[in-house]
Amino acid sequence: MNIPANLKYTKDHEWVSLEGDVATVGITDFAQKELGDIVYVEVEALDQTLDQDEVFGTVEAVKTVSDLFLPVSGEVIEFNENLETEPELVNSDPYAAGWMIKIKVADTAQVDALLTADQYKELIGA
Questions:
Q1: Is 1 a residue whose pLDDT tops 90?
Q2: Region for residue 55 given its phi and psi (left: phi exceeds 0; alpha: psi -120 to 50; beta: otherwise)
Q3: Are 36 and 62 in contact (CB under 8 A)?
Q4: Phi/psi at 56 (nearest 5 deg)?
Q5: How is this protein organized at the quaternary level (predicted)?
Q6: Under 8 Å CB-to-CB from 77, ≥6 apart: which residues?
Q7: pLDDT tens-digit profile of 61-118?
Q8: How much is the mean pLDDT over the chain?
């Protein structure tokens, strides 16, 4: 299972990469495997400012629909539009081409408080 050490993670199986005050967010390799074939990604929160743990969208797989939770407070400034026509990118490349949103982070200390790769591995029993 792929769990890059340079990312931060949430208990809800999202990953976060921070550059300056902009965070890129997606779901983990573990999450996409648990969900199965992803057929649709919806982000309703574009251009909205949300608090940490608020729902920013949903990911739909063949058998289930799951909410996506904002890992840190901030404004959702970008959605990966490639997912509109190729939602399977979340399955094939969850940490790069399958990213979901970018957030202008309100407090970068929230990113620091997220799980490390080792803590996430412990959470999922990897």
A1: no
A2: beta
A3: yes
A4: -110, -10
A5: The glycine cleavage system is composed of four proteins: P, T, L and H.
A6: 22, 46, 47, 102, 103, 104
A7: 998 999 999 999 999 999 999 999 999 999 999 999 999 999 999 999 999 999 999 9
A8: 97
**What is the model's pLDDT at position 115?**
98
Per residue in 48-73, pLDDT tens?
999 999 999 999 999 899 999 999 99
Largest separation between any pair of C-alpha atoms in the chain: 37
Cα–Cα distance between 86 and 46 in angstroms, integer? 19
pLDDT over 90 at 13, yes or no: yes
Helix (H, G, I), strand (E, B) or coil at 53: coil
Q: Is 27 exposed, middle or buried (0-12, 13-18, 19+ CB in 10 A)?
A: buried
CA angle at 22 for the pair 52 and 73, rounded to the nearest 5°: 10
Residues 6+ apart with CB under 8 A from 84: 41
Structure tokens given for 89: 């990118």
Q: How is domain 8-110 classified at the architecture level of CATH?
A: Beta Barrel (2.40)
- Looking at residue 66, what is its pLDDT? 96
Residue 123: CB atoms within 10 A of its CB come to: 14
